[in-house]
Amino acid sequence: MKIAYFYTWNDDLESGVMKKVRDQVSFWEKEGHQVKIFILTNRDSLLQQDFHNLSNTSNITWHCLEYYGFIERNRQYANLQKEVIGFKPDIVYLRKCKFSPGAYRILRRFASIMELNGKPKLFKLRLGHIYDRVTFRMLLNEVQGFVTVGKEIASAPVYAAPKKAVKVIGNSIDQSRYQVLPPSENKEVITFVYIGSPRQPWQGVDKILKLGRMRPSWLIHIIGSKADDFGVKPKELPNVVFHGKMAREEYLKIFRVSDVAIGSLALYRKGMDETSTLKIREYFTCGLPVITGHQDPDFTGNESHILVLPNNETNIVDHIQEIESFAKKWKGKRVERKLVEHLDVRFKEMERLAFFQQICDSHSGKSS
Predict the structure, then answer these.
(1) Which of 131, 253, 271, 291 is deepest in the core (most CB within 10 A)?
(2) What residue spans define the domains of the chain?
(3) Residue 323's Cα: distance from chain center in Å?
(4) Coil, helix or strand for 172?
């Protein structure tokens, strides 16, 4: 298949989404597919600064479409339309985006699938919200199918109403790029690690700080945020270490000395109870057991290597003893790769490619 993939992104190449996309398209190439990726980004974004580090290969090409402001963004979508028409893809794959005439015309012309990574934001009776809701429905009506990273997302009324083909595929990771880490050599101190983007309340980093206050003998590493983000002074929480943003080779050193990893703890703050976060897949691939506060479509929640807390405000306080028992049980141990290999791109991306083919076949049948 010839696959055109487009989305908007402004974070750097080390962000979870960019690593996910690179893993995906690399696997698609290995399976013999030709891929063109188009990324729309702000002219002064971190991605724009690093874009030159993305390498084209024989069957994968990366294109950066820079913009600044609403008008220029629409102009770049018009350029995107020309590029996609020239490529003549069998399928167009896109992450959820705002409406633009160029994107709309692409979806009208080609078989397309939209990836949905979260539920819609709560609707507010404001002009901007009304415009976004109406125009976004226009995009939804034109796609032939959805890929969602969780069952709950697929059931949201806005997405369920168009009655499109839906495939639930939890996020994937290329496990061949990681080794299962040896257990931490620190026999005394229970050590936790969390990694995530800053300023996202639904991640629940404030709760991790609460955990640090409740158990001052535990050591907690927080990667991706700074103490200033939470108004915390080092002397207040000496057992919590903020590392800010780190490259992979650096944060894997922190993973190596950690016993347990922490996932998102406050998904209810964005009105959700289930998703498949990229951080959990990276934790498990490195052999770290996980504590999280939400359901994941790739796990029942009864596995020994994951502790799923209730998705509510008091989940840390109410379940501190369970957290302690879980951490003590796993100290000095790692999760075997065979228990989490179903998260690998080999399995996840074969499902996605099969869905692509299903939509292509259905679309060509209607066209003929």
Answers:
(1) 291
(2) 2-172+344-367, 175-343
(3) 25
(4) coil
Q: Could you report the per-residue pLDDT of 205-262, keeping only the tens digit for each?
A: 999 999 999 999 999 999 999 998 888 887 889 999 999 999 999 999 999 999 999 9
pLDDT at 316 over 90: yes
pLDDT in tens, 139-193: 999 999 999 999 899 888 888 877 899 999 999 999 999 999 999 998 889 999 9
Residue type, 229: D
Q: What is the pLDDT of residues 42-76, one digit of tens each?
A: 998 888 888 888 889 889 999 999 999 888 989 99
Q: What is the pLDDT of residue 163?
A: 86
Residue with tokens 């369920």, as numbered in its chain = 160
Q: Virtual CA dihedral for 118, 120, 121, 127, nearest 10 degrees?
A: 150
Alpha-carbon span 14 to 311, nearest angstrom? 28
Instruction: Tell me if the domain spanning 2-172+344-367 has CATH number 3.60.10.10.
Output: no
Give the pLDDT score at 367.
58
The contacts of residue 173 (CB under 8 Å, 6+ apart) are: 19, 20, 23, 278, 281, 282, 285, 343, 344, 345
The 3-state DSSP class for residue 214 equals helix
Cβ neighbours of residue 221 closer than 8 Å, sequence gap 6 or more? 191, 192, 193, 194, 241, 243, 254, 258
Distance CA 191, CA 260 (A): 7
Which residue type is seen at 183?
P
CA angle 90, 91, 97 (to 5 degrees): 150
At the second CATH level, the architecture of 175-343 is 3-Layer(aba) Sandwich (3.40)
- Give the model's pLDDT for residue 305: 98
Alpha-carbon span 114 to 116, nearest angstrom? 6
How is residue 49 written in tokens? 């600064």
Rounded to 10 degrees, the C-alpha dihedral 49/52/56/62 comes to 30
- Give the residue among 275, 277, 241 at the shortest CA–CA distance from 258: 241
